[in-house]
Amino acid sequence: MKMWKGVLTTVVAATMLAGCASNNAGTNDAANTGGASGEQAASGKAESVTLKMFIAQPRLKEHYDKYIADFTAKEKAEKNIDVSVQLEMPPADNASQMLKTRLASNDAPDIFAVHAINDIPSYYKAGYLEDLTSQPFVGKLLGSVKPAVTSTDGKVVAVPLETLSWGYLYNKKIFADNGLTPPTTLTEMKAIVDKLKTANITPFLLSYKESWIPQLFLPLAAGQLINSDDKEKDFVDRMNNDKGSFSEMTSMFDIIDLVNANGTNKALEVGGDDGAAAFAQGKAAMWIQGPWYAETILKSNPDLDFGVAALPINDNPNATMINLSASTSLAVSKTSKNKEVALDFINYVLDDKDSNAFFQALKFNPVATVHTFESYPWVNDATEYVKAGKSYQDPAIPQAVKDEVGKQLQSYYAGQANKEDVIKALDKAWKSFNKVNK
After folding, report:
1. Is 329 helix (H, G, I), strand (E, B) or coil?
2. Are 368 and 53 contacting, i.e. CB atoms less than 8 angstroms apart?
3. Which of 16, 86, 202, 354 has the fewest CB atoms lying closer than 10 Å?
4. How far apart are CA 58 and CA 207, in angstroms?
5. For the chain, what percent of residues have pLDDT higher than 90?
6. For 165-324+380-437, CATH number?
7. Is the CB of residue 70 less than 8 Å from the CB of residue 344?
8. Residue from 101, 104, 84, 105 nearest 34 by CA
9. Is it true that 20-162+327-366 and 165-324+380-437 share their CATH fold?
10. Max alpha carbon distance in the chain (Å)?
11. Could you tell me the pLDDT band of residue 44, with boundaries at 50, 70 and 90?
12. What's the pLDDT tens digit per position in 233-261?
């Protein structure tokens, strides 16, 4: 068993506007949820509140359930509020569209998960996110994390759960047994692929049943090109102004083709959880996936020694970098009728005492000054790249474009679309996004 077995890590942070809004929320709770009136509260009867949460991480349900149970006990003990939580955890592939539909139809959950980079700008502009700037948790956020959950006008609008340093996962034992180290160029990666195949080891695990997984190629390839090629440094800005094209990113297919040609079978029948189990069992040496699957992988094989490395996309070693990002974050609906309790939970996410165990269970990185748990080995792997100046901030590509690339790369793998089809579809998706968001 490795020395880090059983270590846990997770991170969560949140903020919300206090003051008058919070004071009014208590009145709204009683009026709109069948909660206690002032007379009932004075008589010692508990107020009842139903809190609706929407978090698209079903694989982590048991950890959320436990933390929510701890929160409801705390609310009962400290405020005499009986909180009932309705936790909705849809699969990632459907979650974004489901949430957008709910928000647009005035059926917003009280608390919902958003992607810090992809969602916050448009959701904040649409008026869906409560201002959390004055909430206690904000003062606990690490300086490197706070900007990811801050709007363009300086409002903190979510509490971050996941901060990520990622590229791809690799089986350290397989690499060590075959005298391999993570490659720095595409040519070196091809040599590793050949050596693994000679040893009858499948180089890559493919799990494309869920479209968000092949989508991961986009922020990796595009992000590294944008940050290593002066001609592409303004790519996102130009795309936002209908002046760019993914035809500039055609070279990303070099790594995609290499992975697809040297991976496990039946990729379109294998989802994330099955992929995690297969990777844990050593079915392949590498997986284009992030460490957010660490909890699931180690549940299948607690002794697996795996690392995180940067994915080469070409023969420029300076382009081989780690992606730094903040993803899953919790926001409070601006229209919630239960804001007081919602804010209590948001702050509890970064509770001085309880949040350490919660984050450890989720195996997320620390995001607050109150997080004192030890980093995982794979986090340290990624940190070495960061220390060497070989990292970049996740590019601000619209979620609609990421959704489209996932579907297109499924079709590309199946031979139902070619490179030109994919590029055309991505350009169209970005232009459509621009029309709606200008």
Report:
1. strand
2. no
3. 86
4. 18
5. 74
6. 3.40.190.10
7. no
8. 84
9. yes
10. 78
11. low
12. 999 999 999 999 999 999 999 999 999 99
Residue 82 host element (H or E) = strand 81-88
Mean pLDDT of the residues in the chain: 88
Phi-psi region of 304 (alpha: psi -120 to 50; beta: other; left: phi over 0): beta
Q: What percent of the chain has pLDDT over 70?
A: 90
Distance CA 65, CA 8 (A): 17
Q: Provide CB contacts within 8 A for 362, sequence distance 6+.
A: 8, 9, 10, 11, 60, 63, 161, 295
What pLDDT digit, counting tens, does each position of 159-204 carry?
Answer: 999 888 899 999 999 999 999 999 999 999 999 999 999 999 999 9
Helix residue ranges per DSSP H, 333-398: 339-348, 354-362, 377-387
Instruction: Count CA atoms closer than 13 A to 13's CA, side-chain side.
Output: 34
Contact criterion met (CB below 8 Å) for 333 and 111: yes
312: Cβ–Cβ under 8 A, 6 or more apart, which residues? Answer: 183, 184, 185, 186, 188, 189, 255, 319, 320
Q: How far apart, in whole angstroms, are the C-alpha atoms of residue 415 and residue 305?
A: 35
Phi, psi of 29 (to 5 degrees): -55, -50
* Partners of 307 in beta bridges: 170
CATH 3.90.580.10 holds for 20-162+327-366: no
- In the beta sheet, which residues pair with residue 160? 329
- Structure token pair of residue 416: 């139902």
Residue 1 pLDDT > 60: no
User: By the 8 A CB rule, do 311 and 121 touch?
Assistant: no
Q: What is the CA radius of gyration of the chain?
A: 22
Q: Rounded distance, CA 215 to CA 226, Å?
A: 17
With bands split at pLDDT 50, 70 and 90, how would you rate the model's confidence at 365?
confident
The residue type at 345: F
The lowest-confidence range among 38-52, 89-103, 418-432 is: 38-52
Lowest mean pLDDT among 26-40, 165-179, 257-271: 26-40
With 0-12 CB in 10 A as exposed, 13-18 as middle and 19+ as buried, what is 241?
exposed
Q: What is the token pair recorded at 279?
A: 């990777």
Which residue's structure tokens are 């620390």? 366
190: exposed, middle or buried (Cβ count in 10 Å: 0-12, 13-18, 19+) = middle
Q: Domain segments of the chain: what residues?
A: 20-162+327-366, 165-324+380-437
